[in-house]
Amino acid sequence: MVNAGSLIERVTGQPESAALADLRRIVVGGVVGAIAGGLGTLAFSIVLYIAIVLGAFEPAQFGELAGLAGIGDPIVGEGNPLVGYLIFVGGGMTTWPFLFAALHHYLPGWRMAVSGITFAAIGWAGFSIAFYSGQTGTDLLLFVVLTFVGQCLYGFVLGLVFEYAEPRVDVAFVGTTFQ
C-alpha cells in the first residue's frame, strides 16, 4: 500500500504538512474571493438596476450572455436573461476575483481597494462593449456613466473585502500572497 504522505511529498516536492497548509490557504483564498466578488457584484447590480429603471441598460443583454454561453438559441444568440445574469454573478464571484488576486500587485493604488478600482476601470472597457445595446443620446451617456460607476464600485468592494480579510486569514492565490 502506498503511503499518502510520501506520495504528496513526491508530487509537490515539499513535506506533507507544507503542501496541506498551501492547499488550505488556496481554499480559504477562494472563499474570500467568492465573498469579495459576490459583495462587489451585489453593489454593481444595484447600479445596473438604477440604469435599467432609467432606461440606460437593457436587461436582455444578459440573455445574450446566456446565448453566448450556449444556454439558449445558439444561432440567434438569445437566452434567458435570468440565466445570463446568473452567469454574470458567477463570473463576478470566481473569474474576476482570481484575476484581481493575481494582478493587484501590478496595478496602481496604495491600497487594495484603490487597486480594485483600477482593475475594474480597465475591465469596464470590455463590459461596456459587450453590454452596449444601441443606446443613443442621454441613454448612452447614462449607460456609460452608470456602468463605469458600477464597475468601479465592484472593484472598490472587491479590493476592500480582500484588504479586510488579508490580515485576518492567511490568503493565497496561485502562489501570490497579499503582503
What's the count of strands?
A: 2
In which range does the helix fraction lie? over 70%
Strand percentage lies at under 5%
Distance between the termini: 41 Å
Strand order of the largest sheet: 1-2
Number of helices: 7
Shape: globular
Give the biggest beta sheet: 2 strands, antiparallel
Mean pLDDT, as a whole number? Answer: 84
**Low-pLDDT stretches:** 173-179
* Global Rg: 20 Å
Please state the oligomeric state of the protein chains shown: single chain
Q: Which structural class fits the helix and strand makeup?
A: mainly alpha
What is the element string, with H for helices and E for strands?
Answer: HHHHHHHEE
Transmembrane segments: 26-52, 82-101, 113-134, 140-162
Keywords: Membrane, Transmembrane, Transmembrane helix
Pfam family, one: DUF6789
Protein model, in words:
- The protein has helices spanning 4-12, 16-53, 60-68, 81-93, 95-103, 112-131, 137-165, and strands at 172-173, 176-177.
- The longest helix is centred in the first third of the chain and has 38 residues, at 16-53.
- The model is unreliable at 173-179 (pLDDT under 50).
- With 179 residues, the protein is mainly α.
- It has a domain at 43-165.
- A hairpin with a 2-residue loop joins strand 1 (172-173) and strand 2.
